[in-house]
Design a protein that fits this description.
The structure holds 2 protein chains of 2 kinds. By secondary structure, chain A is mostly beta strands. Chain A has strands at 3-6, 9-12, 18-28, 33-38, 45-49, 53-54, 62-75, 84-90, 97-98, 102-106. Chain B is globular and about 40 Å long. Chain B is mostly beta strands. Chain B has one helix spanning 29-32; strands at residues 3-7, 11-12, 18-25, 36-41, 47-55, 58-61, 69-74, 79-84, 93-100, 110-113, 117-121. The chains are: A mainly beta, B mainly beta.
C-alpha cells in the first residue's frame, strides 16, 4: 500500500491549526494507521495509532481521524516545538509502509 | 522504562554483510510478548520497514529486501539482530530498531524506538 502525504510542507504560525493528509492507495482498516513525529537528529516518535488513539504522553492538541483511504492528523493549536516532519504508516498489509512525510514549519 | 540501543560497524564495504544489534534495557524480550522490528532511513529520505520478529518461528520481511535479510532474537543477551548481505551504497542509512505497538501483533505500528545507528556503505 502506497501512502501519499500532503502537503509536502506546511508553514503556519503558533496557535494556528495544522491539517495533514495521508491518502492510501487502497482501502485500509483504521486499526492499521499510525502517525509519527520526527525532529532533526531524533528517531520518529509515535503520536497516534489505530488512526485516532493517542500514544502515551502525547498532548491532546494532536488528533487523528479518517477511514478507508483518507486519514488526517490535526494539530489544533501549533506550538513552536511542533516544528518537525510528520509521517503516516500503515500496517494493514505487508510490507509495512510509510508515507513520504509532511514538514511543518512554525513561522 | 523500556529502552532500545542499536549498535553496528558504522562503515561497511560494498558486497559485505552488515550485522546490526539492538539491545533492550528496562525489560526482557522473552517475557515482553511483542514483535520487534528494524526500520531504516536513508539520508534526507523517508522510512523503510525492513523486517520484524517475535521469535525464531515468527518473522516477517519486506519482500524488497527479503533475499538479503535475516532477523533474529537472542533472548540470553536480550538482543534483536539484523543481517543484511551483499550491501551496496543504496543501503547507506540510519538503522532503527523498534517495538511494535500491540502485544503479539506485527500488524501494528512502532511504539518505542532506539536512537538509531548510522551505516555507510563505501569502499
Amino acid at each position: 500500500i502506497v501512502l501519499t502525504q500532503s502537503p509536502g510542507t506546511l508553514s503556519l504560525s503558533p496557535g494556528e491549526r495544522a491539517t495533514l493528509s495521508c491518502r492510501a492507495s487502497r482501502s485500509l482498516s483504521s486499526d492499521y494507521l499510525a502517525w509519527y513525529q520526527q525532529k532533526p537528529g531524533q528517531p520518529p516518535r509515535l503520536l497516534v495509532y489505530g488512526a485516532s488513539s493517542r500514544a502515551t504522553g502525547i498532548p491532546d492538541r494532536f488528533s487523528g481521524s479518517g477511514s478507508g483511504t483518507d486519514f488526517t492528523l490535526t494539530i489544533s493549536r501549533l506550538e513552536p516545538e511542533d516544528s518537525a516532519v510528520y509521517f503516516c504508516q500503515q500496517s494493514g498489509r505487508s510490507p509495512l509502509t510509510f508515507g513520504g512525510g509532511t514538514k511543518v514549519e512554525i513561522k | 522504562q523500556l529502552q532500545l540501543q542499536e549498535s553496528g560497524p558504522g562503515l561497511v564495504k560494498p558486497s559485505e554483510t552488515l550485522s546490526l544489534t539492538c539491545t533492550l534495557s528496562g525489560g526482557s524480550i522473552s517475557t515482553n510478548n511483542y514483535y520487534w522490528g528494524w526500520i531504516r532511513q536513508a539520508p534526507g529520505s523517508g522510512l523503510e520497514w525492513i523486517a520484524s520478529v517475535y521469535d525464531s518461528s515468527s518473522t516477517y520481511y519486506n519482500p524488497s529486501l527479503k533475499s538479503r535479510v535475516t532477523i533474529f532474537v537472542d533472548t540470553s543477551k536480550n538482543q534483536i539482530s539484523l543481517k543484511l548481505s551483499s550491501v551496496t551504497a543504496a543501503d547507506t542509512a540510519m538503522y532503527y530498531c523498534a517495538r511494535h505497538v500491540e502485544a503479539y501483533n506485527v500488524w501494528s505500528g512502532f511504539y518505542v524506538w532506539g536512537q538509531g545507528t548510522l551505516v555507510t556503505v563505501s569502499s
